[in-house]
Specification:
The chain is globular. It has a 7-stranded mixed beta sheet with strand order 1-6-7-5-4-3-2. It has a 3-stranded antiparallel beta sheet with strand order 8-9-10. By secondary structure, it is α+β, with helices and mostly antiparallel strands. It has helices spanning about 5-10, 135-155, 190-195, 210-225, 290-300, 305-310, 320-330, and strands spanning about 30-35, 55-60, 70-75, 95, 110-115, 160-170, 175-185, 200, 240, 250. It has 7 helices and 10 strands. The N and C termini lie far apart (about 55 Å). α2 (about 135-155) runs antiparallel to α6 (about 305-310).
């Protein structure tokens, strides 16, 4: 039996809180609690190692009857700022599943997911037991998760997400662990399949085919949350979906540089007349044919649902709700 599986079985008693998982992963917004043995420092970096491959491990969870279960997975660091060890000791990951192993699990039908963690720069690696993190790292995860959920409220052209609480255990000593919030986002290919679209490769942007209403809606949302770290034409933190008929629709991702998240490391995009991410700057198109009032009305109509979302999200305290609500209303 592989060492990592033996370690997990010996630590199974550490699992907490039974989970209901009868629904597909993204059909529920209940907090999903998992455990995962992992040595983050041992994970290779795709930007530094062309041969970087996935590392096997397992997710542990409790089924609807409270029975301890596991599902084998493979993980790999994602590219980007948060994948660098100097920036985040707990990096963002891709999680890959063998679809044959997911039947009857919370991950049924999934083949690959993006996992966003709390980052945790400057804190202990997972070989330190239950060491507390500054609250700000937890708030980054929740606020970025909320950004995706808010975008779901104004357009179907958006990535679905699921809030998690993960117990990360030391593969060499399962009594050493820490537990933090995280979230899954659906894979880009899964989004394209769900919407009956084709995922466009980098460099395939065609301004003549751009869906202008969808582009302006995305830009208004980015303005609302104070995000300037994106570009449709450059496909920077934006993917393009080509719909039947050829229309290209932009979909946003990676919101950690926004004023909504307000991460201590976040900065506005270079060359803009703003000094902090809490300030806003509109980066979208101003097309003469845009029905601006209809778009503004759509955002105003979503306000009550957004406020309800802040109230209903687990782990989001009253003070955080107040500050986030005030920022969105400002």
């Amino acid at each position: 039996m592989p060492r990592i599986l033996r370690v997990f079985i010996s630590s199974a008693a550490l699992l907490v809180s039974a989970q209901a998982w009868a629904e597909p992963l993204f059909d529920s917004h209940d907090l999903l609690e998992l455990s995962m043995p992992v040595d983050f420092e041992a994970l290779c970096r795709p930007s530094e190692d062309p041969g970087c491959d996935y590392t096997p491990t397992v997710f542990g969870y409790r089924d609807a009857d409270g029975v301890e279960r596991t599902v084998p997975i493979e993980i790999r660091r994602r590219d980007g700022w948060r994948a660098q060890q100097t920036n985040c000791q707990v990096p963002t990951l891709f999680v890959r599943f063998d679809e044959a192993e997911t039947a009857g699990t919370p991950f049924e039908g999934q083949t690959e997911l993006a996992l966003t963690s709390h980052c945790g720069k400057g804190v202990a690696a997972p070989n330190v037991r239950s060491r507390a993190l500054p609250d700000q790292f937890e708030s980054y995860v929740i606020n970025e998760y909320l950004g995706y959920r808010m975008f779901n409220l104004v357009t179907d052209f958006s990535l679905r997400v699921r809030l998690l609480r993960i117990r990360y255990t030391d593969p060499d000593n399962p009594r050493r662990y820490f537990t933090r919030d995280a979230f899954f986002a659906e894979h880009f290919e899964s989004l394209a399949e769900r919407l009956g679209a084709e995922l466009m490769a980098d460099g395939q942007f065609d301004p003549g085919r751009l869906g202008l209403d969808e582009a302006v809606r995305l830009a208004l949302f980015q303005y609302m949350i104070g995000n300037t770290d994106w570009s449709i034409a450059g496909q920077d933190n934006v993917i393009l979906l080509q719909m039947p008929g050829g229309r290209q629709v932009p979909v946003l991702y990676d919101l950690d540089q926004s004023g909504l998240v307000n991460a201590h490391y976040a900065r506005p995009a270079p060359g803009l007349p703003i000094r902090t991410v809490k300030q806003r700057h509109y980066l979208g198109y101003c097309h003469a044919g845009t029905d601006w009032e209809a778009l503004f009305s759509q955002f105003r109509a979503a306000r009550d649902d957004i406020i309800s979302l802040l109230v209903q999200t687990p782990g989001f305290g009253r003070g955080e709700r107040r500050m986030t609500g005030a920022y969105l209303d400002s």
